[in-house]
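User: Here's a structure from my thesis project, written as structure tokens. My advisor, Dr. K., wants to see whether a designed sequence matches the one we expressed. Can you design one independently, without my sequence as a hint?
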């Protein structure tokens, strides 16, 4: 049933992406409400898939690469749903829904079923660490989506060829403000993810820091996002440059995650042991 729910979620995300595209690109008004509805439906069905796996494994965690992709996609969709209720940025779903579909499709292709967590890695900090780390990544993914729409809006304004598309896009000021809000939430979640990961490591190995590639990548990302926030606070970094920097940070995040899970990297996070 876990795989069936996952497949249904991927289908809902795909149809949602098509609906968002029809609304934004071709002014299909009926699709304006269908996109968010289908994305929300995908989120609910996807949640059932994750709940099924949680019951099988007995713990909310991520053991393999496919599980990580699935959990990440679900949180990205959930982050958009929360942001949509507060900021009414439906058009961001035009980026979020294809991203959620791509991640979920990859999870379906790589699906292996629920796997037990190695006994030596079990502990109360594990689900907390995994949830915080992936939630922080999901919020950064939302910031990436906002940045993409910002650049589309800016280019449309500069080219004077926007037409009716421009009327369906938020203002640059609003997009920049939401981008900053996402970074301001994502950074403490990333920080807490790193800290709880260290506490978990200390509990089972006695070492807070072991120098694994995943840990090094996490620190690099922490420094990058800390620097981005610092520039926004003290140097007034905003607009196009802030959006490009946000997109760069997310690209590094994705590459680091893929490298750790695809390459034969030793350690707790390497080779899909714990993603």
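Assistant: Designed independently from the structure alone:
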């Amino acid at each position: 049933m876990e795989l069936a729910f996952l497949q249904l979620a991927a289908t809902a995300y795909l149809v949602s992406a098509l609906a968002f595209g029809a609304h934004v690109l071709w002014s299909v008004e009926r699709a304006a409400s269908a996109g968010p509805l289908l994305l929300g439906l995908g989120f609910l069905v996807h949640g059932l898939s994750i709940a099924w796996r949680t019951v099988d494994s007995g713990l909310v965690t991520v053991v393999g690469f496919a599980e990580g992709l699935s959990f990440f996609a679900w949180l990205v969709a959930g982050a958009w749903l929360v942001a949509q209720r507060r900021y009414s940025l439906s058009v961001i779903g035009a980026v979020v829904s294809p991203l959620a579909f791509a991640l979920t499709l990859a999870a379906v292709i790589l699906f292996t079923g629920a796997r037990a967590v190695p006994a030596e890695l079990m502990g109360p900090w594990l689900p907390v660490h995994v949830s915080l780390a992936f939630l922080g990544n999901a919020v950064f993914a939302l910031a990436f989506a906002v940045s993409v729409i910002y650049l589309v809006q800016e280019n449309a304004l500069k080219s004077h060829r926007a037409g009716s598309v421009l009327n369906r896009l938020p203002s640059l000021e609003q997009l920049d403000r939401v981008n900053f809000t996402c970074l301001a939430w994502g950074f403490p979640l990333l920080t807490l993810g790193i800290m709880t990961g260290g506490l978990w490591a200390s509990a089972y190995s006695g070492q807070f820091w072991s120098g694994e590639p995943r840990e090094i990548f996490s620190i690099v990302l922490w420094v990058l996002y800390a620097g981005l926030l610092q520039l926004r606070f003290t140097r007034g970094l905003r607009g196009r440059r802030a959006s490009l920097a946000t997109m760069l940070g997310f690209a590094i995040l994705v590459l680091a995650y893929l490298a750790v899970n695809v390459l034969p990297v030793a350690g707790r996070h390497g080779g899909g042991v714990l993603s």
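When you compare it with your expressed construct, this may help: The chain has a mean pLDDT of 86.
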